[in-house]
Amino acid sequence: MRALFVVSLHELRSRLRDGTAVLITLVAPIALATLFGVALGGDDPPLRTTIAIVDHDGGEFPASVRREALAVPELEDILTFRDYTDENAAQAAIDTGEAGAALVFPAGFTDSVGAGRGGEMQVIESPDTPLAGTIARSIVDRISALVDARTLAAKSVLAAGMPPEQVKAYVEENGARGPTLELAGDPLSGGAVDLAVYYGSGMAVLFAFFVAGSSARSLLTERQLGTLGRIRAAPVPVWTAPAGKAVVGFGLALLSMCATWWSSVLIFGESWGDPVGVFALCLAHTFAATSLVMLVASGAKTDAQADGYTLGIGFVFAFLGGSLVPLYNLPEFLQHAALLTPNGWVASGLTHLASTGEGATSVAGPVAVVAGIGVVAGTLAVYRIRKGLLA
């Protein structure tokens, strides 16, 4: 372990003396994250959405819901309604992306609510369209409040002795004929992610490859200078040099990700979500990035070739994984391809944390997958380095 400590310390000193370590670890990712945040920051997603209406009732209540919802200032520019004949047609529209969610009004709903008997309606959602689901649930929450109020009013007048046939007319005369739909607060507040957060995390994920890649490049340089040969002749384990460089690359990459995260929060005031969850994703991605660059470097012949491999894997994974372009802007097949990269899982996990406010356990899946990628890549890297660079 002492030999590993000495090699790691020497590598760290060399990186700091070189000056590029500070540039690619701190200056470049923070500067680019800030520039992207200033230029493109704002609520995500800037989308329009369609909610399907299945009206088995045909009464005033569903029509009034539609009018009132479209009159809400927060919704007027993003929401449209579309009619469908039944639940199957609405579900098919959601599956094809024609609609994001559906509201189903059963037969007799208007009469039941008007008579104070209450009523039940159905919401059909899809995990692929959280914006539509958020709006649909907000509408239903307000409808439920109105239905409860009318039911209570009807029961009160019945208890006071009013004939049942007069209850509906009385309730309508003393309240709105349809629902007065005023959505409390911003219905999108639970599903929005500021693009400053998205691009800040994207730069952090991208530069983790470059920072760790510098250590992989250094390993090739040591071989060209003959240092690895001298280490093999010394009374220390042969894995000391690559392990020491990997440790330094991992540490600096983790520092880079955390510094970009903290600077983004301080500059833009936008949280990335639960700190424990964010750190777990950063830790897992740093491990995966270090393992991947060591793996690709193990097949390089020169340090320049190792640089090329690192740049290639960094930018390809960044594009496919949503670090440069938001995943929802990519074609569907590329959105699926993103799950083959650690970037895609980290982007998904960080978006979930930032948009939902849930804790670290909610991203246990992405953390496990990214760590698994690191284990597989690291195992292959150890094998190839032993058979190649250290042979």
Overview of the molecule:
Keywords: Cell membrane, Membrane, Transmembrane, Transmembrane helix. One of its GO terms (molecular function) is ABC-type transporter activity. It holds the Pfam family ABC2_membrane_3. This is ABC-2 type transport system permease protein. 66% of the residues lie in helices and 6% in strands. The strands form two sheets. A four-stranded mixed β-sheet has the order 3-2-4-5, with helices on both faces. Strands 1-6 form a two-stranded antiparallel sheet. The longest helix has 31 residues, at 195-225. It has 391 residues and is an alpha/beta fold. The protein has 15 helices and six strands.
Topology, please?
Elements: H1 2-18, H2 20-40, E1 43-44, E2 49-55, H3 60-70, E3 79-84, H4 87-96, E4 101-105, H5 109-114, E5 122-124, H6 130-159, H7 164-173, E6 193-194, H8 195-225, H9 227-233, H10 240-268, H11 275-297, H12 303-320, H13 332-337, H14 342-356, H15 364-387
Parallel strand pairs: 2-3, 2-4
Antiparallel strand pairs: 1-6, 4-5
Helix pairs in contact: 1-10, 2-8, 2-10, 6-7, 8-10, 8-11, 8-12, 8-14, 10-11, 11-12, 11-14, 11-15, 14-15
Protein name: ABC-2 type transport system permease protein
Main location: membrane
Transmembrane segments: 21-40, 196-220, 241-264, 276-297, 309-328, 363-383
